[in-house]
Amino acid sequence: MRQGGNLRGALVALASMGIYATHDVIIKILGADYPALQILFFSSLLSFPFIAALLLRDPTHGTLRPANPFWVGFRSAAIVISGMCGFYAFSVLPLAQVYAILFAAPLFITVLSIPFLGEKVGRHRWLAVLVGLAGVLVVLRPGQTELALGHLAALGGAVCSALAAISVRKLGRSERTVILILWPMLGNFVLTGASLGLDYQPMALGDLALAGVIAVLGLLGGFLLIVAYQTGEAAVVAPMQYSQMLWATAYGWFLFGEKLDLAMGLGSALIIGSGLYILARERRGPSVNQPASEARLRAESVTAPRSILLRRLLRGKG
Predict the structure, then answer these.
(1) Burial (CB count within 10 angstroms: exposed 0-12, middle 13-18, buried 19+), residue 217
(2) What is the percent of the chain where pLDDT is above 90?
(3) How confident is the model at residue 207 (pLDDT cuts 50, 70, 90)?
């Protein structure tokens, strides 16, 4: 019975990753005509009605003042910057290249868990980190390929995604779900809204509708992840995140004429392999802070909140 549940969970997770990849493809399509921050602003703005409907399910009472202002602010800043970096990177770089770099986030989580969480990282995980970082260098090919702002943005997105995951472990269950979702949205509205005064392009109605589709796909992907984790074991569901590389390769070839060359394939294999190894090692031994990377199946953003937060709201637990 459990084996059948694992298969269904894996298939639902694959569908979720396909939806997330479609979410990113639309970002790339719109990014050809509009500034990335403008796309992020309208996507998050159009996602707010859906998220507000979920926030109304929060049964707990209280103000929007966080119990841990520093870590809530830190996490919110990391999510906002990660979203800004990710939207820009998808707008200017090949899809597969962006995913390969973003997949390095578990490596950064492993390294950052030492100073932030007091984790002890053994030599096996250190070796995996080194292999994964070597894979990032293979993908970037410094000296052979001119590194652009998009590459820096993708790396920044991976690091900020790792910082957001680390901060979740510091916060634990001390904050209401409303605060964890709403504060990053408010920060995003302020920063991306301010950017509209610097570089704004009037959006056609059809393109504005596509920004709304981004919002819907981000939430739909999160809901499917909830179903996947409820159906199958985390050890089976979590590795499905790397299927986004297959979606990116297919979308990139079919829609944008992008090709996956040998260096990109090799670098991606090193990054994905090291990430899978780290996930496997973290599940083997007991660790108080262990789930820092386990909790991250998909990088959290304003348009795609963590599925665990959505699950809390659906269950009516603040």
Answers:
(1) buried
(2) 34
(3) very high
State residue 286's pLDDT score. Answer: 43
Work out the mean pLDDT of the chain and round it to a whole number.
84
Average pLDDT score over residue span 115-119: 83
Distance between CA atoms of residues 184 and 110, nearest Å: 24
Dihedral angle computed from the Cα positions of residues 265, 268, 274 and 280, in that order, rounded to the nearest 10 degrees? -100
Whole-number pLDDT of residue 151: 92
**Structure confidence at residue 76 (pLDDT):** 92
Reported pTM? 0.87
Report which residue type is found at 216.
Answer: V
**Tokens for 144?**
């052979």
Q: Quote the distance between the C-alpha of residue 5 and its chain's center.
A: 25
DSSP per residue over the chain, as a string?
Answer: -HHHHHHHHHHHHHHHHHHHHHHHHHHHHHHTTS-HHHHHHHHHHHHHHHHHHHHTT------S--SSHHHHHHHHHHHHHHHHHHHHHHHHS-HHHHHHHHTTHHHHHHHHHHHHH-----HHHHHHHHHHHHHHHHHH-BTTB---HHHHHHHHHHHHHHHHHHHHHHHTTSS-HHHHHHHHHHHHHHHHHHHTTTS--PPPHHHHHHHHHHHHHHHHHHHHHHHHHHHS-HHHHGGGGGGHHHHHHHHHHHHH-----HHHHHHHHHHHHHHHHHHHHHHHS--TTGGGTTT-SS---SSS--HHHHHHHHTT--
